[in-house]
Each structure stands twice: as C-alpha cells, then as structure tokens.
Amino acid sequence: MFVFSTYPRKLKILADAAKYDVSCSSSGSKRANTNKGLGDATGMGICHSYTEDGRCVSLLKILLTNHCIFDCAYCVTRKSNDVKRAAFKVQEVVDLTINFYRRNYIEGLFLSSGIFKSADYTMERLVAVAKKLRLEENFNGYIHLKSIPGASDELMREAGLYADRLSVNIEIPTEAGLKKLAPDKKRKDFIKPMLKVKNEIIQYNAEKKIIKSTPKFAPAGQSTQMIIGASGENDFQIMQTSNHFYKSYNLKRVYYSGYVPISYDNRLPQIGSAVPMLRENRLYQTDWLMRFYGFDVSEILNEQHQNLDLDVDPKLSWALRNLHEFPVDVNTADQRMLARIPGLGMKSVFKIINARRFRKLNWEHLKKIGVALNRAQYFMVCESNQFEKRDLTPEKIKGFILQNSTSKYQKTLSNQLNLFG
Ligand code: SF4
Asked: Of 412, 414, 174, 171, which Cα lies nearest the Cα of 315?
C-alpha cells in the first residue's frame, strides 16, 4: 500500500512524536467542497473520532520533523533527547494526506513540527503543505496547522488563508514555569502569532460582511494547549491562564494535557507520577462551565479553593459550597440560576424555560425533560413536594449523591471527557 510502503520509518517516528499534542479537535469549520475538489469539511463532513481516553484521531496527525533546536525539558522532541529523528519533505506530507484521505482513513490533517533552523524556516514549510493541498490538490478537507512560536506576521497571515484552524501552544501555564522548563522560549513568542491570528480573523470577518468574495481566514478559529502537572501549577493558576487567553485572544478551545513523565530531570515530576486523567477531566469541566454555563473562574477556583475536587464535578462542588443560593424554584428562576443547579445541562435549562411558559413544572415533567434528579433534587423546588429534603448539610448531600450515583462517579474516574449529564 502506497502510504505505508513509501515512508514507513518516517511515518512511525513523526506520528509517534505528534501524539503528545492533544489540541486537534476538528469542530467548527464550514469549508464547503468547491470546484469538485477533494473532501468536504462542512458541518457533519468532519466526524469527531476519539480514542478511548477522549483524544481525537480523525486527522492524520504528524510532525513535519522531530528535529528541534530547542530543549524544552517536558518534550520528547527536545534536542538533548536521544531519539530517532526524521523529517518529511513538503511534497511527502501532501502525498500522504491525499492518499490517506482517498482511502477514507482521515478527514483532514493535523500538522505540527519541531523547530529546525528557525521559527520562520519551519513555519514556511508548514504553510507550503497547506497551500499545496488547497491550491494544487484542490483539497477541501480539514487542516489544522500548529503555529511555530516566533513566526512572522506575514507567515501567520498566509497560514490562516489555507488552514481551518491555527494553534500556538502556551504549553506551561505560568511564565515562571516556562522559564524553568523551556528557557529558550519566551511568552511573547506565543502571544505575537496569537494576536496576529485574532486580529486577522476579526478583520477578514468584517470585510466579508461587506465584500462577499473575501476569502476565509482560519474559519475554525485558533486554539491552544497547556501541559498540566509538569511545573507544579495549581488548578486556580491553570484556569486563570485559560480564562485570560479565552478573553484576550478569542480562542475557540484550550486543551489540557496531563504531563506524562518521560525523563529523569530534577525540574520535572518523577517517572511513574503521571497526572490522573480525572484531573484533566475536572479542568475540562471547569472550562465548560466558564464557556457555556456563565460561571466566572473565580467562583469555582480562588485563593481559598485552589484545586478542583476530584470526587465531585466542579458544578456540584460549587453548589455544595454555596448552599445559601438554593433551593432554586425552576418555575421562576432565571437562566443563570437554572444553569447552576447540579444535574441540569444547558439543554435541560432551555427545555425548562420553554416548557414552563405553558404549565407549572413538577418532578414528572422534569424527569421527562432529562434532569438528573438524583443530584438536582437537593438544589431545586417545583410544583410538588416529592423528594424535597431540606436542612441537609453539604457533607450529607454529597454523601447521598455519591451513594446514589456510584456508577456515574466511578465511571468518571476512567473516562477522560465525560462532561455534564
Ligand atoms: S520547541 Fe516544541 S518541539 Fe522543540 S523542544 Fe520545545 S516543545 Fe519540543
């Protein structure tokens, strides 16, 4: 078979080296198939495909090269690491992508790279892959390009014209951590390309409203990834950084990747002390609460509460610490408070708001709507007294919920991306 027989060694090395990057979700693009081209990233054209631990595998995910001039302590590709090295030529990545795509193995390409020679030298080649795919192969599949920290504005602008999504990894949540583990890197080298992409997206979108033929610029936006647990930051610091980047750079997603100890280095956690999957899961849940449930990060994490509870999800944890806000009357509460009731997802919130225009809701109605009553019953009232248990302490409520939800909470221990029910 072409793809395996042509570059088996390179492919193995460069696909293996890319697996540490989790920022590869392919949602949000609306690139339609044009000119009878190859592939279609419109809406459902891109399928989400995740491994058991929740990582996306629907894209051909490779590095252009794992040669690197930098020596970031947490990275398998660092220059001092004794690993096999390889590099693809631009045309080879184009050929691989097309062949994998034609065989239906992938919906698109996720291309990253170690830095060889310089940021611009590397970025130029990443852009060349995307450009060839779009212009020479007429490829309409999904392309996610990693931006190389320190790449020039001009290359970032060009990258956005061919890629659906761009991302620059923040990598370490704090500047102090970055200085300790990646002394070659500066926070400003991430910020500059991120800012450029943000401004270009705003500008292109504004122009598109006036001139329909304006090309799309990174239509699926930009994302970033943070490595968790390599540099000792607590969850409060991590989510503060996340919040800052969402707000300042209009990011679509922040990905949280638990550090897997891979080397003996006294700056890093010891081998065998990997970050529990559950911690990643709780960070994703908090991220979700900030983006879709109207929570401010300081409500969930603050100086008094610097790390997320592992035994209950962050919304339940917040509710237990703020029992004075409950019970909420589902027949009269506003959207903000409904969204704060444990056991209610946003879909249920909207259904409740819609349904209560016609009748007063009771527990039966709420059950039909899909509310998880085993949790919600302690935090709400409705047109019925059934289930009402008042004057319970947070510890008692937590005990009841854990007791009655064993399967769900046990499952959470092993499921990476099991968000809110
Ligand atoms: S620059 Fe990127 S690829 Fe190179 S060592 Fe640092 S993290 Fe790894």
From this structure: 412
Instruction: Extract the tokens encoding 68.
Output: 């690197």
CB neighbour list of residue 375: distance below 8 Å, 6 or more residues apart: 316, 342, 343, 401, 405
State yes or no: cis peptide before 8, omega within 30 of 0.
no
Average pLDDT over all residues of the chain = 86
* Residue type at position 87: A
Q: Cα(158)–Cα(25) distance, rounded to whole angstroms?
A: 22
Most confident residue range from 25-29, 102-106, 318-322: 318-322
Tokens 């500047």 -> residue: 175
**Pocket flag, ligand 1, residue 114 (CB < 6 Å):** yes
146 CB near ligand 1 (under 6 Å): no
**CA 184/CA 70 separation, integer angstroms:** 6
Distance of CA 23 to the CA centre of its chain: 6
Instruction: Give the tokens for residue 372.
Output: 């998880």
Distance 340 CA to ligand 1 centre (A): 40
First to last CA, the chain: 44
pLDDT (tens digit, 9 = 90+) per residue, 34-88? Answer: 555 555 444 332 334 433 344 454 788 899 999 999 999 999 999 999 999 999 9
**Banded pLDDT at 384 (limits 50, 70, 90):** confident
The response to whether residue 68 sits with its C-beta less than 6 Å from ligand 1 reads yes
Alpha-carbon distance 83 to 66, whole Å? 9
For residue 24, the model assigns a pLDDT of 54
